Amino acid sequence: MTYKHLTTRELTLIADFWYQGTKAYRAAKLLQRSQETIYRVYRFLNNGKTIDQYLQTYQRHKRRCGRKQTQLPTIEVNYIHAQIKAGWTPDTIIGRHEHPISCSMRTLYRMFARNQYGFSVKQLPMKGKRHPNGSLNCHVTLLNQLLLIMGKNLLDGER
Question: Where are the alpha helices (DSSP H) in the chain?
C-alpha cells in the first residue's frame, strides 16, 4: 500500500481542529486518516511550533522518500564513455556482456537522458531507433515542395 502524503488543506484542517480543542481520534475519523498522523501534528503544535514550520519540515523529509538514483562505479563509467566514443549504443554496451554493468539498459538510457556522469544524448549515434543523431525529419510531400518553391519565387518578386 502506498503512503498518501498530507496536503496543505489537510494540515490546515488539523491545525484548526487542534485550535478548537478537538480530540485527535475524532479529527482522524473526520479526515479519514491514521490517528498516528494526526497525533504527530498535534505533538508538533503542542511544542509551540506553527503549522508553517511543520509543513516545511514535512516537505523537506518528503523529498527523501522514493528510490535513490543508481550509482555506477568509476570503472563502469569510464568503460561506458570509451564505448560511446567508439560509436556503441547503450543496448550494445550492456547486451554484449564484455564488461559487467550494474544497471539495466533502460536505466542507462535514463542516465543519458538526465545527463548523469557526463553522459549526453547527443553523444549517442542514433536519435531514437531509426534516425542518426542530429538528423532532421525531411519527409516533405510534393505539395509542400511546390509551396516552398512558390514561396521562394514570391519572396524573390517573381510571380
Answer: 8-20, 24-31, 35-46, 51-62, 74-85, 90-95, 105-113, 142-156
Q: Which of 8, 11, 41 is nearest to 24 (CA)?
A: 41
Q: Which of 108, 77, 70 is nearest to 91 (CA)?
A: 108
Distance CA 105, CA 110 (A): 9
Nearest residue to 94 via CA among 82, 73, 80, 81: 80
What's the pTM?
0.51
| CB-facing half-sphere around the CA of 43: CA atoms within 13 A | 6
- % residues pLDDT > 70 (the chain): 79
Tell me the pLDDT band of 1, cut-offs 50, 70 and 90.
very low
Pairing of strands 126-127, 131-132: antiparallel
Residue range 35-59: mean pLDDT, rounded: 93
